[in-house]
Amino acid sequence: MDLEQLWQSTLGEVELQISRPNFLTWLKNSKLTHKENGVVFVSLPNNFAKEWVENKYNKTILSVLRNFDDSAKKVEYVVENKNTSAASAKIIAKQKSLSEVDLRVQQSFAELRIDPETGLNPRYTLESFVVGSSNELAYTAAMAIIKDVGKKYNPLFIYGGVGLGKTHLLQALGNEIKKEYSNKIKVKYVSSEKFTNDVIWAIRNKRMEDIKEKYRLTDVLIIDDIQFIGGKEKTEEEFFHTFNALYENNKQIIISSDRPPRFIPTLEERLRSRFEGGMIADIGFPDYELRMAILKTKLQNRGVSLTDDVIDMIATKVQKNLRELEGVLNKILFIQDNKKTELSSKQVEEIINESIQQPIKNVSPTQVIKAVADYFQVDVADLTGRCRKNTIAEPRQVAMYLLREVLGLSYPSIGEKLGKRDHTTAIYAYNKLSKEISKNQNLNQKIIAIKDIIQKE
Amino acid sequence: MKIIILKDNLREGLNSVVRAVSENNNLPILKNILIKTFNNKIKIIATNLEVAITKIVSGKVIEEGAITIPFSVLNGIISNLDSEKVSLDSKGNSLILKTDNYEATIQSLNEEEFPIIPEIGNTKNHLKINTEVFNDAISKVVNCAQISEIRPEISGVLFDYQISSLKLAATDSFRLAEKTLFDKDFKADFTTGFKAIIPLKTIQEVPRIFREGEMNIYFDSNQVLFKGEDLEIISRLIDGNFPDYDPIIPKTLETESIINKENFINAVRLVSNFSGKVNDVKLKTKEGKKVMEISSATQHLGENHYLVPIKTKGNDFEVVFNWRFLLEGLKNFNSEEIMIGLNGDQRAAIIKSQKDFSYFYILMPIKNS
User: Fold this and answer.
1) Cβ atoms of residues A352 and A318 within 8 Å
2) Is the domain B127-236 a CATH 3.10.150.10 member?
3) What pLDDT is attached to residue A87?
4) Which residues of chain A from 4 to 33 reach within 8 Å of chain B, CB to CB?
5) Which residues of chain A does B237 touch, with a Cβ-Cβ cutoff of 8 Å?
6) Per-residue pLDDT tens digits of chain A, which is 457 residues long
C-alpha cells in the first residue's frame, strides 16, 4: 500500500468516527507526506488544524493507521502552508471599490510579473521563438538541454549581438525546463547585473553565505549578459566558485553574452577557459526569411494584418536588430490604428527611416581611430603610417569602415585622417567590410566590440 | 464560571476581537467567542482559523472556568444595556447574564468545542517597537496591498528585517509603497535577517486594536504574533516570496518637481469630479515649468483644470494617473512639500519627501491615448 492509499483508507475510517463538519474543517486538506522509522508525517493546512488534530484526534488516527500498517508507532503533524483559505475569498467580494474602476488602461509594474523564485518572465516561451538559420544552432542546443538537463552541453554559452533574441531564448528555456519537470528542477535566471548587486549587498551586509546558498542550491543557473561581470573582481571570483560548485555537481549552467568568451577583454582567464569547455552557440543577424517569419508571427499573435508590401519593406529595411524590428512594427500599427486608414508605402518608408536612425553621439574621428588601435593593440601611428603588413592593414580598414559607418565622414576626409590616403582606398575598404560583415561572424564581433568601446567613451 | 465585569470593559473586549469572528458554515463555532478566566482576569478570544485575537480585560472572578457563546448575541445585549456592571454565570449548557434589572439565558457550548489557539514556535527572539511608530509605518504602506487569489504573495505586507533596519512594503502591481524603520525605532534580538509576508487582513487589524504603549512581535516559520500588555494577535504568514521590487524603483529621473502637498491634494480632489470611468487626471507642465496643470475631462460631463505652482528640474511632462492612487499616495506623507519624480508618461513615477527619505510611493501612469 503506498502512502497516499494508506492515508485515504485511514481518513475513510476516521471520517466515520468524527462529525462531518469537523472532518471537513480539520482533515480535508491533510496529506501523508512521508514515513520514517515508524513515525508517520502528516501535513495539515494551518496551525489551528495542527493543534486540533494533535490534541483531539491523534489517538483515533494512530489506532486506525495501525490497523493498516502496524509499523506506525507515532504520528507527527506539520503545517504546510498552501495559502488556501475560505476567509480570503470572502474579502474579495467585499473589496469592490477597485473593481468598479476600469483598470484596463491602468499600467502595472511589468517587473512584478517576474516569478520571484526563478527570476523568469512567463512572457517568454519557446513557442514564440522563431527559428531560422541564424539561431538554429543555439535553439537546437537549448532543446537538447531540455531533454537532458545538466548532462549534455554544460555550460551552454550563447552569444550574439543586441536584440537578436538571446534573452528570449534563455528565458524561454528556463520556463520550459520548469514546465517540463513540473518544478522539480530549480531554475534560477539572473542578469549579471543582478548577480553583481547581490554580491555587493552580501559584502555590505556580511552575508556572503546567503548568496552562496542561494545560487548553489539551484539545478539550472541561467546568467544573462555575462560580459558585464568582466573586471568586477569580487563578483567574478564569487561567480567562479558558484560555477565550479554547480558544474561539479552536474548542474546545468547557461550563459549569454554579446560576444564569444575570448572577446570579453576583462574576463579572467580561468573563467574564459571554463566557458569554452562547454558548448558555444551563436545567434547571428537574422536573414530576410527569418525577419519575415518573425514579423508574421508577431502580427498573428496580435490578430492584426498588414499588406505583404509593408511587411516586406520592414523586413528588408530593418536588418540588424529584432527589438528594432518589433519597435518599427509597433509604430506602424499604432499610426495606422490612429489614422484609421492604410498607410501608403511612402509613409511606411518614412516611419522606418525615422525609427532606425541611430542617435549620433559626439564622437571625434580621433576617438574612433584610437578605439580601433586599442582594440587591435597597435599604435595610432601605425594606422596612419605607411605600413601594409596584414596586422596593420586590417585594423586600418576597420577604422575606415567605422569612420564611415559611425560618423558618416566623406571618403576623402577618411583617407586624409588615415595617413593622407586616396579616397578610393577608403571606398574600397568600406565596401569590402560592408560585404564581409554579414558573412564573417568573427569580423562582426570585432566591429561590435569596438563600437561598444566607442560608445562608452 | 462566574464573573462580574464592567460593561465598558466587556464592550472593549468584544470590539477588539470582532474582526476575527467569522461566518463559517462548516464550523459554526467560529461565530462564537471564548470567555475564559485567567489569573483573576478575563480572556476574550475569537478566531477564523487564519488569525486569532485574544483580549484580556479586568473583572472580578468569583469562580474559574470557561465558556463559549455566539458573539452577535452577546454584542447585541452589551451595546444596548444601560447598567454599569454585568454578571456572567455559567450553568450547564447555558450562560446567565444578569444586571440589576435584566436577565438573559444564552445557549452556550463547552470550551472543548472551541478551536485551540496555536502558540508561536519561537519565543526566544522578538522585536519590540512603540505602537504609534509601528502603526504610522503600517498605515503608510497598507493601502497599497490588495487581496489577490492569483498572487497570494502580494496579498499582504512585506516585513523585511535586516538587523539594522526594518522595511515594510506593499504593492498591488499598480503602485508600491515602502517604509523603512531604523534600529533607533525598535529593539530586536533576532540574530539573522529574514523576510515574512503578513496577510493584509491581519495587518489591518493591528493599528485598529493596538493603540498605545509597546508592542512585541514574534515570528516562527509560518506564524506571527503581535503581543501587547493585554492583547494578542496570532496569525498565519503568507507562504511565498515577495516580488523583488528593486528594479521597479526608478534609479534616475527625467523630471523632478516639488509641490506643496495640501495644494496638490486639493487640486486632485477638485479636478477628479470630471474624471471618467478610468479615474484619469492629467498632470502637465506649463509656463516654462513653473506651473503644473491638473485636468480632467469627460465628454458628457465637461472638463476642468487647476493650476498649481511647482519647482521643476528636468524635462516638461504630460502624464495621466488614476486620481485615487495618486491621492492615496499623497495622503501618506506628513511633510509640507513632496517631490514627484517622472520618467516620461509610460514609466513608473515616484513620490518622495525631501525631508524624510525613509518612505516612498511609486505608481504607474495610465496609458495616455
Assistant:
1) yes
2) yes
3) 43
4) 21-22, 24-25
5) 81
6) 688 888 988 898 888 888 888 888 888 888 888 888 889 999 988 888 899 999 889 999 999 988 888 888 889 998 886 554 444 444 444 444 444 556 667 788 877 778 877 888 888 888 888 888 888 899 999 998 888 888 888 889 999 888 888 889 999 999 999 888 877 888 999 988 888 888 888 888 778 888 888 888 889 999 999 888 877 888 888 888 888 888 888 889 999 998 888 878 777 888 888 888 888 998 888 888 888 888 888 888 777 778 888 888 888 877 777 888 888 888 888 887 777 777 777 878 888 877 766 555 677 888 888 888 888 888 888 888 888 888 888 889 888 988 888 888 888 888 888 888 888 988 998 888 888 877 776 787 788 778 777 776 6
Same fold across B2-113 and B250-363: yes
Chosen for mutation from B19, B47, B148, B222 (greatest number of chain A CBs closer than 10 Å) is B222
CB-CB: which of A87, A104, A205 is closest to B48? A87
Tell which CATH classification among 3.40.50.620, 3.40.640.10, 3.10.150.10, 2.160.10.10 matches the domain B250-363.
3.10.150.10
Q: One-letter amino acid identity for A74?
A: K
Taking the C-alpha atoms of residue B27 and residue A25, their distance in angstroms, rounded to an integer, is: 7
- Grid cell 525598535 is found at B186
> Side chain identity at B147, as an amino acid letter?
I
The phi and psi torsions of B130 (rounded to 5 degrees) equal: -65, 130
Put simply, whether the predicted model's pTM sits higher than 0.80 gets the answer no
Where do the structural domains in chain B lie, given as residue ranges? 2-113, 127-236, 250-363
CA distances from B49 to A197, A269, B21 (A): 40, 58, 10
One-letter amino acid at A117 equals E
Give the integer Cα–Cα distance in Å for A272 and A280.
12
What CA–CA distances, in Å, run from A236 to A195, A228, A271, A279? 10, 10, 8, 21
**Which residues numbered 53-112 in B keep a CB inside 8 Å of some CB on A?**
none
User: In this complex, do A112 and B152 lie within 8 Å of one another by their Cβ atoms?
Assistant: no
Q: Which of residues 206-265 of B touch A (CB under 8 A)?
A: 222-223, 236-248
Nearest to B27 among A21, A83, A103 (CB): A21
Q: Write out chain A residues lying below 8 Å of B193, CB-based.
A: 205, 207
Identify which has the larger pLDDT, B288 or B169. B169
Q: Which residues of B touch A207 (CB under 8 A)?
A: 193
- Interface contact flag, A109 B28, Cβ < 8 Å: no
Amino acid A103: pLDDT: 63
The answer to whether A101 contacts B322, with C-beta atoms less than 8 Å apart, is: yes
Please report the number of interchain residue pairs, chain A to chain B, with beta-carbon separation below 8 angstroms: 132
Coil, strand or helix at B137? helix
| Architecture of the CATH domain B2-113 | Roll (3.10)
